[in-house]
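step=encode ok
step=design start
structure_in=
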């Protein structure tokens, strides 16, 4: 579940860069008002309202236009051909959260890094939510723009759980600016280009960029997100379906008329209620079989991020269904969207095959298999894994040791996918397979029991920090505490995934 909390949602950066918003209605723009620490985005007013097609927020167009990060002194790649300008220790392709964090950490250890991205200063498009206790220990609390001391889960109309765990929205602009600043002071060089091809020799590789530039390095890291062309996945899956699940969600940052019903001191992690289906019976059967829930981050009485989410589906739930369910839900809750400030389509592949280990290009981030297979969370994990990966890279390419070619690839890949991490991932994949088999009632029973677990276990599960032994203990406790129908679900629906997991764990230990 993108966690079960999938949630990836977003909102306006608490300090929205000076965004320019295209106008939508013929009304005058509202006066700026404080938003977290930032003014509410202003709106120009030269459009006319279109006749409603859906009679809901789906008729509204997102108004915000992302502004680039302001960073006048970023060290750009020098195009003058010379060994110094074209030869690096490490080239990291992609300046998303994963690529930039790894560039920051590797360069901090004295390794020469070049970061290549078509737009290194573009603002990141996604809104990232996370648990505060994941970001704080990494010294990244200054990159959060809104926190909620508690989270709420509505299991159904009669059962609600209040989770005593603080949640946050990451400030994309602050996090990116911080990583760029650290990269710049550590000597990272930035190249604005798209990488087209990678060629390997015994001890180094060359990347060919779309502007004709060629750059060399001992190690190439692909941090291009989910759609990578440069990474090969486990051979086993070439002849079989990839069997990944997908989290799909539609999110909006909305200004609402007359306020919203959410407490400002709690974020809504999951709302599994379906009373809105009473008015829209044609949506009910689909939702009963493949349920979606509402995720919400309330910022101000009239400003909220709302996201209807399918935690995991295979094949992917149609995006249109997600949007129609969201419209029905908001209508039922009396939430009237006045303006859509931002819109987010979320599609996250989860739990597919791991990359083939080792291979000549290292993967990091969305393409590396590190996405939580049963929640879809990645950002905090990638921030936490980067120092570990940087240590391995610096051991090989730092000043004292020069390990290159196959031994280098072997070490970096095995540094990311240790036997323990692979086994733990098998377990999280089992969680995903279980969720895929549950209908709405089963899903409710599951989360009812899950959030009753000792917080150590459910916190650890959602944050990928339980050992295999702890994960086994979690399952036993979950089974022991579950209701009888829930146990029946597990016994009748999960034997196949369970056998697969045990088989894969056995292969892993041989
Ligand atoms: C809408 C959405 C919301 C999400 N919300 C959350 C959340 O709330 N919490 C959470 O933990 N996770 C969330 N995720 C999951 C995950 O954290 C994000 O997908 C995250 O952006 C992955 O980071 P990344 O750096 O690996 O890849 P990306 O952020 O996708 O960055 C990849 C970068 O590589 C560049 N690139 C691509 N191809 C090339 C090329 N050929 N050459 C050079 N550069 C290239 C791209 O331009 C981009 O800058 C969300 C995902 C989505 C899609």
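sequence_out=
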């Amino acid at each position: 579940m993108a966690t079960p909390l999938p949630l990836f949602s977003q909102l306006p950066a608490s300090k929205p860069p000076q965004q320019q918003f295209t106008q939508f209605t013929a009304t005058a723009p509202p006066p700026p008002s404080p938003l977290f620490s930032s003014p509410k985005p202003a709106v120009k007013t030269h459009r006319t309202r279109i006749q409603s097609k859906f009679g809901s927020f789906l008729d509204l167009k997102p108004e915000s236009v992302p502004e680039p990060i302001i960073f006048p002194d970023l060290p750009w790649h020098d195009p003058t051909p010379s060994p110094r300008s074209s030869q690096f220790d490490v080239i990291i392709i992609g300046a998303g959260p994963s690529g930039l964090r790894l560039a920051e950490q590797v360069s901090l250890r004295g390794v020469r890094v070049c970061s290549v991205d078509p737009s290194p200063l573009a603002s990141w498009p996604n809104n990232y939510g996370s648990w505060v206790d994941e970001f704080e220990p990494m010294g990244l609390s200054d990159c959060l723009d809104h926190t909620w001391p508690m989270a709420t889960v509505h299991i159904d109309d009669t059962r609600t759980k209040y989770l005593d765990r603080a949640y946050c929205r990451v400030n994309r602009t602050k996090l990116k600016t911080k990583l760029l600043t650290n990269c710049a002071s550590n000597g990272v060089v930035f190249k604005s280009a798209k990488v087209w091809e990678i060629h390997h020799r015994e001890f180094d590789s060359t990347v060919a960029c779309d502007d004709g530039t060629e750059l060399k390095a001992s190690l190439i890291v692909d941090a291009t997100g989910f759609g990578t062309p440069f990474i090969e996945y486990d051979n086993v899956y070439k002849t079989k379906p990839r069997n990944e699940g997908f989290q799909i969600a539609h999110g909006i940052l909305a200004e609402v008329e007359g306020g919203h019903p959410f407490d400002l001191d709690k974020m809504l992690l999951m709302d599994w209620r379906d009373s809105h289906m009473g008015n829209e019976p044609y949506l009910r059967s689909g939702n009963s079989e493949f349920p979606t829930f509402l995720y919400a981050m309330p910022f101000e009485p009239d400003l909220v991020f709302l996201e209807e989410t399918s935690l995991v589906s295979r094949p992917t739930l149609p995006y249109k269904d997600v949007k129609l369910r969201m419209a029905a839900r908001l209508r039922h809750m009396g939430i009237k969207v006045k303006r859509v400030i931002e819109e987010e389509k979320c599609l996250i592949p989860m739990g597919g095959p791991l990359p083939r280990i080792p291979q000549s290009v290292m993967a990091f981030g969305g393409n590396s298999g590190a996405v939580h297979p049963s929640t879809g969370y990645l950002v905090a994990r990638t921030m936490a894994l980067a120092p570990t990966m940087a240590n391995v890279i610096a051991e090989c390419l730092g000043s004292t040791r020069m390990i290159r070619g196959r031994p280098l690839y072997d070490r970096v890949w095995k540094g990311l996918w240790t036997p323990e991490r692979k086994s733990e991932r098998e377990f999280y994949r089992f969680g995903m397979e279980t969720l895929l088999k549950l209908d709405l009632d089963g899903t409710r029973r599951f989360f009812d029991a899950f959030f009753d677990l000792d917080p150590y276990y459910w916190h650890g599960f959602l944050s990928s920090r339980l050992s295999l032994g702890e994960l086994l203990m979690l399952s036993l406790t979950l089974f022991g505490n579950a209701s009888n129908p829930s146990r029946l679900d597990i016994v009748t629906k999960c034997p196949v995934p369970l056998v697969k997991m045990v088989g894969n764990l056995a292969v892993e230990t041989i």
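step=design ok
step=annotate ok -> The pocket of flavin-adenine dinucleotide is lined by residues 7-9, 93-99, 116-118, 126, 128-130, 194-195, 223-225, 344, 346, 348, 365-366, 377-380 (CB under 6 Å).
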